[in-house]
Amino acid sequence: MRKFFYIIFLLHLISNLFSQPSNIRTYTTLDGLPSLTLYSCTQDENGNIWIATESGLIVYNGNSWNKLDSVKGENLNYLFSLVQKDEQRTIWAVPGFNPTNKVFYKKDNIWESTNLENANYKNSTIIDITIFDDQPHFLSMTRNRSVAFGNKEWMDDLTIDGLTDIKVYDGKFINKQIFLATNRGLIIYNPETKIYNTGLIDKTEKVIAISKPVNTDEIYLLGLNWIGQFIDNKIIVLKENFEIPFFEQHSNYAFITVTPFKDFYFGTIFGSFRWNQLVDHFEKLDNSIGFSSSGATSCFVDYESNVWITSLRGLTKVKHSPFINFYESDGLSENEITAIESFPNGPIILAHNGSFSAFDKNRVLRLSLPSQKEHRGFHRILYLAYDPKLDVVWFNSQLLGIGYITRQLKVRWQNNIQSDGSFSFLSLFIDNRSNIYYSTDKYLYRIDKGNPTPLKSISSLNVRRIFRYDDENLILATKKGLYLFNENTTEVDSFKTGTLLADEVYSFYKMTNNKWLVGTYNGLYIFDGEKIRKYDDLKIDKPVFFIGQENEFIWFGLMGGALRWNPSTGQKFLFTPTEGLAGVETNRDAFLYKDGKVFIGTANGLSVFHSQLYSEELYQSKPKLNFYGLFNLKGIPYKIESEIHIPYSNPEVLIKYNSPSFIDETLVEYTIALINLSKESREIHRTKSNSYLLRNLDPGAYSIEISAANAKGVSSDTLSLSTIVIQTPFFKNIWFYLLVIIFLISISYSAYEYLARNRYFKLLEIEVKKRTQELRNSERSIRDLTQRIFTAQEEEREKIARELHDNLSQELALVKFEFDKLSNEVSVDSNSKFTLLSNKLDGILISLKNMAFLLHPNSIKQMGLVNAVQALCNDVSNHSNIKVEFFSNINEPLRMNEEYQTNIYRFVQEGLTNIRKHSKAESSIVIFILKDDFLNIRIEDDGIGFNYNEEKTSGKLNGMGLASMEERIRFLGGELNIKSYAGEGCKLNAKIPSSILHNNDSLASSNQESVS
């Protein structure tokens, strides 16, 4: 229990630190605002906010801040002192002390510029713009506070005869006249008659600002210590006795702006204020309540009644609220309000966690519990109740006891009703007979003649509220349900919902039909005297802490705000911190309706609701919705037509839109309705993104509707887009079905013919199989014959090679030996014919050995195929002018039979022989690559090449070389690809199945086995 109180106390301290109104938001560079030195702002027809800053024009659409860099190629990177909208809704942007002699305007969403041809505009600042005779006219002020009027071609100084000491602070075009705020008062000038109205000179003090709210005929004036309204050529003072900081030697940027709810925002760069005429509430606007600066340069009211205040330190947005809030900074003892009660025609008492506050004759007073009790620390005041018999307000302190407050705001304890620390005081109630009831966590009591009388043991019920049900019974809200206690019999009847959370009862309210609304942790229920059930007329599914009445409206204090509901009309609205409620959590006894105002206590301050400040029409204005187009996935826009046709192969559509609603930009929600016109079905998609992708649309026609809901849940008008037609694929068209029918008819006819000729086809099939088998046998025979030829060739080569090596080479070696012996016996010189013949014999011996090697290379058996081929390449390089390189990724020894290895070797040998004889190449490469179950053999050269395809087609290829190579690769079950063009060399690529690489059986024998 002690931990719980410590947590509550800590939350109480935190709430004191963060007590600024939640309906105020300041924008800085951390939010994306490009500049903090701001001079004015306005809103275009699409709802975007345009801001004049020291570094250019900035636009904010609720999602992003963007700077207008240029207009028709002209850089806008300089100070803008004014941005405003004229009567024709054109946006005007004016550079300060115009360095370009231009003004810029936005019409029909396009920015243009116009030249100010009069040179005097460069020495002045335009302060207002209007349209006379379809031409823009400008009111301009110089640094010495004189003014001039004109259009882009001419400028007239507005000098008043006989008044040389006039200094102008502000000027406005109003009703085709010029109103000037001066140091002598209000001056009115008629441009058509060129007559000054100085009748109000010296009748008031300085006028420093003028305002005419949009769509009204009202004119308001600001003085140094007063606010006035100009009516029938007279000034009516509305508010006075305050002081605005104003220094004539500085540019003060004095301003006054009035909202539809009669909130007056006014001031200078040295101080700004707000005064509400309807409730006469006045306050200073500064950092302590969340503003970016204590002063301001201008103020603007947007279409949702949000107030935008520009300053030299940033931008502040104030959302309109029907509440006036009070905090510790306004004089309250604490921020959290736990209970509220009032003396008739007297002060209002606010209870806190350990103290009281009082509203008495427009004063806020702080009251404390008697000092001897304060040592107990946290002692939350749970309930207040007025006793008309004693004219006091009773209270219960959760940990300390029962006490009362007198009309003179003296706090007293009821000495015989105090706690020793072993129990808590939970509720307090005074009925219409001035009977006082209270509960602890152990008993229900009634105070009789100042003494507590126990009525019933209620241990563990935790009675949170007591009220009279009828003459005999009290109704009790407990953490275990709703109870009726009969004072005569002391019997208790319990009523439960059957749901644990719904049995946590906090509040109740008696309706006129003798039914009771019941507020629980699980929402709103109704009790008819027999059972409790969910209330269907008003759906509330969150904790309901209090229920109170304001005329025809019923208020519900919730976790998350306060709900105002009219049972007769069904009108309802949930007020949250977004709408200006002081805190997100309300308290059980923190509601009071008095003098036409609703007092609501929250965990973070007191909110006072003024019905005059709430207009359903103005307060719930529809948000704007802007549509930017339909795009494909590449960002290319579709041309907007009555029907947009999209191919079925890409059935995706990206929709881009935006709703500049600034009540809370983060809570804007979009609804996209996709209507299938052919199926008459409807899909609803909701998102907070300002774009949405419709994917995988089935063929057909679709209509798309978009709407936006702002932070208050108010929806915009629904925007219907062009009909989107996803084209039907060809296989779903009628002509395709006709083709299918024709095809089926053809198939049927073919089937008929097939059945008619079936016997013929079977006989033919038998004959074909027979002939096919004969062809296969012939092919096998040819392959066998080919292999026998290759084998016979190799055997003959081996025989010739052995004959050359063993006989002829030996005989020549003997001749060489005898010849060398003879040359030694005969004395001859080194250049003699003996020497030449001896060398010739050496060459013949080498040639015979090479010939024997080429006829039958023993290196295949000794070195393996890969090494033998590499040796062959090296030998060709060493004995010719062609450099032959060899590359292989084969590391393992190949266990092929000798026939296969010999065929591969002969293939490479034949290729290199062709290169030596015909290519005139300088280099060549032989590559063995084992990959993907194939052995790839590539032989390439950089020689003269030949047109292989042409010569093969024309039959010009001579010799058996290429044919023999193709036959060898085909014999190995592979393919040979030959590419050669004149001047581009020759490329041979043989592709052999790797299955033969590890096959020790001969292909011929395997073929024989397969035949058998």
Précis, in short:
This protein is α+β, with helices and mostly antiparallel strands.
Rg computed from alpha carbons, rounded to a whole number of angstroms: 52 Å
How many helix segments?
A: 11
Mean pLDDT, nearest integer? 85
Distance between the termini: 99 Å
Overall SS class: alpha+beta
Q: Percentage of helical residues? A: 10-25%
**β-strand number:** 72
Give the overall form: elongated
Low-confidence stretches: 1-20, 1003-1012
Into which percentage range does the β-strand content fall?
A: 35-45%
Q: How many strands, which pairing sense, and closed or not: the largest β-sheet? A: 6 strands, mixed
What does this molecule look like?
With 1012 residues, the protein is α+β, with helices and mostly antiparallel strands. Helices cover 20% and strands 39% of the residues. The protein is built from eleven helices and 72 strands. Strands 60, 62, 63, 65, 66 and 67 form a six-stranded mixed beta sheet that branches. Helix 4 (758-825) packs antiparallel against helix 11 (1003-1011), helix 7 (865-878) packs parallel to helix 8 (898-919) and helix 8 (898-919) packs antiparallel against helix 10.
